[in-house]
Specification:
A six-stranded antiparallel sheet has the order 1-2-4-5-6-3. A two-stranded antiparallel sheet has the order 7-8. It has four helices and eight strands. The longest helix has 17 residues, at about 75-90. With about 190 residues, the protein is α+β, with helices and mostly antiparallel strands.
């Protein structure tokens, strides 16, 4: 498993307001995982989150495959989108997707599918991420570039400047802690 990258250190990196702590990464991961019912429906789990980085994993079952038995493009996009949603929200601010471009490079034949999102550029309100998706054999099957826009408000429930924001909905203990939040919800809560 590759080492988790650190946030960009260039002078172009934005001031992100209050410092985002390691414990906050777990909060962001859980916040999205517990609210993204679409990703949970697909069986996607958020395996790892760090500032500007996330890794999501999805099984490749029969309902994730297209008519010729390979990973469905929508399933590939869904796991990539969830990794992106988590990575961009680890900046501590609610972020939404402005644009995503995906290139499918090879058929996904064996699961699980793994998506790793890494921040590659960030300004105060806009950040760009690269997402790489591999299949269970380690074959690179897709590359995405996605752009996030920060809504300049803390992720609900995240401790910021000594105050804790109230979450929109109570944290559910019924879903797996690593079950992802749907990209649709992540989009409104990315």
């Amino acid at each position: 498993m590759p080492a988790t990258p650190s946030a960009p250190t260039s002078e172009d990196s934005p001031p992100s307001g209050p410092s985002v702590q390691d414990g906050d990464m777990e909060h962001v991961r859980r916040f999205i995982a517990e609210r993204d019912t679409f990703a949970r429906h697909l069986g996607i789990e958020i395996a790892e989150a760090a500032r500007g980085y996330a890794r999501a994993v999805m099984p490749l079952d029969a309902h994730h495959r297209n008519g010729v038995g390979m990973a469905h493009g929508g399933a590939i996009f869904a796991v990539a989108d969830l990794a992106f949603a988590v990575a961009c929200n680890t900046r501590g601010k609610v972020s939404v997707n402005l644009n995503t471009a995906i290139s499918f490079l090879a058929p996904g034949r064996r699961g699980p599918l793994t998506a790793e999102a890494r921040e590659i550029s960030a300004a105060s309100r806009v950040a760009t991420y690269e997402i790489r998706v591999t299949d269970g054999e380690g074959t690179l099957i897709a590359i995405c570039q996605a752009t996030a826009y920060s809504r300049n408000q803390p992720v609900p429930g995240l401790a910021a400047e000594g105050a804790v924001e109230a979450a929109d909905a109570p944290v559910s203990a019924t879903g797996p802690a690593s079950a992802p939040a749907s990209s649709a919800n992540a989009r409104s809560a990315d």
